[in-house]
Every structure is written in structure tokens, then in C-alpha cells.
Amino acid sequence: MIREKITLFLTTCEVKVVFTDSKYSVSIDECQIPRLLQEKKELYKILQTSDGFNNLDNSMNVNFLFFLLLLFSFDGYAKKTTEVLDSLKHVLEQTAQPSTTLYVELSLAYLDTDNEKAYQYAELASQTAQKTAVSKELYWAKMAVGMSLQHLGKTHACLTYLEEALQFGQKTKEKRLIIMGLDYLGKANFYAGNRETALKYFIQIVEMELTEKQLFQYGCSLNEWLARIYAAQKNYKKAHFYLQKEKAHFEKIKLFNPALYSEIGNLHYAQKQYQLAYKWYEKAYKQEQKNFDKHKNYHALGYLVGNMGLAKMKMKAYTEAQKLYEKARAYFQTSKSERDYVNVLSNLSQLYYETNALQQ
Fold it and tell me: Which of 158, 229, 345, 360 reaches 20 to 30 Å from 143, CA-CA?
């Protein structure tokens, strides 16, 4: 039977999983994540066997796929993989009355690849949750709407939904939901320019006195975001402390995070240490390239190459900067990132202005 196959597979990877009629629990030892990633294709084969989805009830499908979504997204801190999206679509086709959970997972799976669809599924999740009036479902639905709005660039609009989500999360008294709510509100306020408000939300997580392992399990990159805020306040000493703390943790569990390398580069750039900034941007870019065949994240590549160009421009290496800007422009054109495309054109214009001024 499929449940026994999955349970047996996960047990061999030292992952504890328990199924009941309507819910599941999963406990992962973070040290086993690399092994899980190596074996995930075998797990997916199990799900695709003839006695796979057809012999699972819908609640089991959706709930277990939430775990799969987390598992597949660990690899290189990718966005969401084709395997997960295809699996969720399959469940949707087989379900007469889709649940809030299914709509939420579809919304999350579309983030970054098709944010309009992510928003549409989040809205469906919200409508479904309103009918059940269950705090946990309302939490996830509001989170999905808020996250999709943020990815659509509607930074201020997303805050209302994320605040409502946190309120529902607090009603459930589940630590994981509360931490995630605080985490996303901190990030959203940071992007909205509300740095002090962002810091207040992150400090609430600090006050919970969680271990690095717990933060990782909750998907909370607290140290990285504290570093961003302190860097914005030009408190570089504190920013450096938190980034090194985050870096040490990832090195311990042998995972490589391009976003973290990029953030270290940003810190050096802010301190006018342009050679060091370039080094870390390049390291992030190379790591992102390793993930490219699977995840096709043109936007991330464009962002990193653009930052490499900025660093080279500050170093007055104009020819190299121009090549990097042109490369970034191509990436943003492919990813249809209009705002970033315009920004890189602005940087190119500034480069041409400076080089022409030098020639006169």
C-alpha cells in the first residue's frame, strides 16, 4: 500500500512520519536533508506508481504534498519545482470540492513563476476558508493572498492581509504559524520602507528564544533579516554579526544559500568594499547557476549579475560593468521583470554618461 511505501522510504532516511485519517506529522533531522534530496526522485516515483494517487484519499494527498513542497524546495533554496506543481494539479483534477489547503498550496507553487495565478488561487483559498471559518484555514488563506500581492509588487496592499493572518495564527496558538506570520510581516514592512516596524516584528521572534535549528525548521531566516535592517541603519557591526551567524549555520548543515551570499555582498557594498562585494555576488551567481537547469530562475541571475555590474562600475572597470549590465538586461527581459529591466537600463545610461565624461 502506498502509505506503507512512503513511510518505509522516509524511515530509512530517518524521517519520522505518522498518518491518520485527516492529518499527518513529519519530523526531519536537518542533518538528513542532503540525503533526502538525493533520494527525492525515488520518492516521487512512489507517488507516480499506478497505485499512487488513486489509492490515497484527498486529505492525505493534499497534506502529504505540503511536506513534498517543503522537501523539493530545500534544494538550493529553489522556488517551486515542476514535480510539485504537476502533483498539485493532479490532485485538483481528482477533487470535486477543493479545500482551502489545496488552493493555498497551488498559490505557493505558482509564486515567482506566475504571480497572477498565485493570486487567483489565493483568492479561491480565501473564499473557501470564509465558508469554514476555521482559524487555521483563514490564516493560510490570508497568508497566501498577502504573499502573492507582495510578489506582484503591491507591497503596501499585502500588509493588511498579513496582519489579519497573524491574528488568526495567534488564535490557533501554534508557534509555527505565529513565527511565520511575524517573519513575513517583518519582510513586507522592510520592503515597504517601514524599517522600524519590521525590526519590531523580528524582535518578537528573537524574544521567543528559539535555537538555530528551530528557526531553520520554521523556515525563518531571522539572522539574515536582522542583518538587512541593521545594515540599512548603517549599524554594520551588528549586520556583520548576524550574517556570520547565519552563514555558520548553513555551513554546518552543508547547504548553500545564494541569497545569503548576496546579502553578504550587499553589506560589503554598503561599506564601499567593492572588491569584496563583487566576490560574494559572484559566489551567489555561481551557486544560482548550479540550480538553473532545474528552476530556470532568470530573475535571480539577472539580479546577481546586475549587482556584479554595480560593483565593477564602482571599481571603474567600465568595460566589465557594461558586459555584466547587458547580461542582466537579457535575463530580466526573459523573466519579464519590467521594473528590474528599467533599473538596469538606468545603470547602463549612468555608465555611458560617466565613460563619455571621462573621454572629454
Answer: 229
